Amino acid sequence: MENARTVSVMNVGKSAKKLFWFALFLIYGYGLVKVILFKYGTVDAAVLGRQLQLAVDNPEHALHRLSFGNFTPLESITRNLQRLSNRNDAVNLFGNIAIFAPLGAFVGLLTRMKWLGAILVAFLVSLSLECAQIVFSMGTFDVDDLILNTLGGLLGYAGYRLFTLQH
């Protein structure tokens, strides 16, 4: 009987820990959407609704916004590397990596996915946010953001794996 109680307490502790990490993941997800879509302004669902309605009513508006995007891999990355002394370029380069690193760690913490799964999740979340910028007219599409964000997710997953191997 004592053994069953110990296992039950351990399972409750494990569930509480998963719930804690999931709650932290939701907070991170909110912050990610806020920074990517709203930059540093307030999150406003009404604004999203109006922007979505604009995209539905005028699909050519979204197509026009796509013309401002970067679809050439490494173009923005190269430009940012050449101008690292410019604070905005450095923030764009390293910020895109840093903001997705927690996503990779959360993939490790909350799922049983391996490396490829972590890469795929980071890529798909990044692609969704890049496309959302077009639909909601809140930024421009940049293929290099996909590359940097996916790299960030991969580095976050690698950090998670290194940490769990040591403990």
From TrEMBL:
Keywords assigned by UniProt, alphabetized: Membrane, Transmembrane, Transmembrane helix
Keyword Transmembrane found: yes
InterPro entries according to UniProt: Teicoplanin_resist-assoc, VanZ-like
Domain named VanZ-like: residues: 58-163
Domain of life, source organism: Bacteria
Keyword Cell division: no
Listed transmembrane segments: 20-40, 93-111, 118-140, 146-163
Protein's name in the database: Glycopeptide antibiotics resistance protein
Lineage start: Bacteria, Bacillati, Bacillota, Bacilli, Bacillales
